[in-house]
Amino acid sequence: SCVFVHREELDHVYKLVYSSDTEEQRRGYERILVWKARCSSLPASVECTLELLHVILRDNELWPHIVQCNMPPYVEQQLQIMYSTSIMRFLNHLSSLFQDIHSETLFRVADRLNIPAWLVDIRHQSAHSNTLPPLRLLRTAATFARGWLHVCH
Predict the structure, then answer these.
(1) Per-residue burial over 57-66, b = 16 or more CB atoms within 10 Å of its CB, e = otherwise
(2) Of 47, 25, 20, 22, whose CA–CA distance to 35 is shortest?
(3) Are the C-beta atoms of 4 and 38 separated by less than 8 Å?
(4) Domain, as residue range, for 31
(5) CB neighbour list of residue 67: distance below 8 Å, 6 or more residues apart
(6) Ranges in the chain, pLDDT < 50
(7) Which pLDDT does position 99 carry in this prediction?
(8) How far apart are the first and last CA of the chain?
(9) pLDDT of residue 126
């Protein structure tokens, strides 16, 4: 990890990322990409935010075209894969913070952090099932994870 961001820039990007305006979110996302280019290892909370925001922005961009049948059918599955991956990485990060110390299950770690069991179930289905969770459920999970990062990190 490297330190190069001033507190003012961090606060500004935080406001952009958690803005209700999609264009501001995109600008915040692009700023974090600049940080990542400068430093290959960002704090895990920033990496998780970057990944969640990436798929949310991509979904906002693609979904109107999917609904109008202007995209190939596999694009919806690509979004499911992107959401599943970002949720798995979010939970894996949180798990790694506690499992090294206490060897706790992911369900216990999630419970300690006020993360609902259904989010862990989504992670398990994404990782171990033959089918991915439905897109609407993945969206809900990503929104929860992003909100959790906003409040807790």
Answers:
(1) bebeebbeeb
(2) 47
(3) yes
(4) 1-42
(5) none
(6) none
(7) 61
(8) 17
(9) 94
